[in-house]
Amino acid sequence: MLPWSPTIIDQCFHSDTLRVAYTNMSPTLDRIICFYVHFNQQVLHDIVGLPLMRLLMAALGTCYAIMAFEGSRKGFKTTTLLIAFPILGLLANMIGISLMFPAIWIPLCLYSYKQKEPKGDDLSLSMPEAYGILLGIVVGYGVPSAIIASPWITNDSRLEQDLVCLWQVLPVIIVPLFGVFENVFKKMGSPIDQITQPAVRERLHLVEGKDALERCFLFLGVLNMVIYYGSYVVTVHQGIHIWDSFLLLLNAPGSLPAGLSFEDLGKLLSTRMVLIDYISLSISFVLWATFNSGIIAGLSVFIATPIIGPAAALSFYSYYRESKMQHTIIKAD
Predict the structure, then answer these.
(1) What share of the chain is helix, strand, coil (3-state, %, to 5)?
(2) Is 270 within 8 Å of 49 (Cβ atoms)?
(3) What is the mean pLDDT of residues 37-66?
(4) What angle separates helix 262-293 from helix 27-44, to the nearest 10 degrees?
């Protein structure tokens, strides 16, 4: 627990200095939300914490997309716990994505593949499903995250607090958007639907879904690269020495100057926790690639991580994994 956490918790439960009414359903629930909101606000208001938060939000969104894709595969929807990706996404916001992803989701994913031993079209997603999930996450998660981390939201405003509170439960409440956008793409149709031979049509739909999913991973990779380099350029333009700042944060609180106010200490230590979360999550991406595709894939993600960013490295690895996995199944059929 952060050194200042007990003070924040005490303020949320026994003080009028912080906003504590969010749901008006349960005082205890509202106080817990108060803590999460105040913690995230501390990071968003810090000059180093803000770009770090953008990167972590992007990485979390990428993880959620991958979990949603895996849980929506034809053979996994009703036979594995991967379908519980909304709950896992919510849990990631509660306990930290760097803990949930390696400790819960990676073992669950590996176990599901081992238990299921997918064959035929078990791994398939239709084109509307793939694009529906991607668009649902971009609109339902990416846009609110971008708004929260934008300069247009006034610090400590009620709007900021409401958005941060809402952001905590986005992994659950955006799920209906997947079905909405999936139906949109279904209504748009596909040239393959005109083919009269059922076997040929089914096989081409399988290839179409594979291509759509690969495009989704490529899109996520490029988007994350833009966020990664954009955050770097903005941070450097502000005159911040990134490496020195990271060393200061990692060595905190011992390396912090004396006489810091409670607010400044909160910003620094909250940002430190986000930095550790981001580094830990990056390591878990390497582990997932290694467990799935071997040491070469893991090393590739490891090398690519500082160059293009952890989330982009994960996205491009997922593209490679999907291409190899689906090609093997289609060839076998």
Answers:
(1) 80, 0, 20
(2) yes
(3) 91
(4) 90
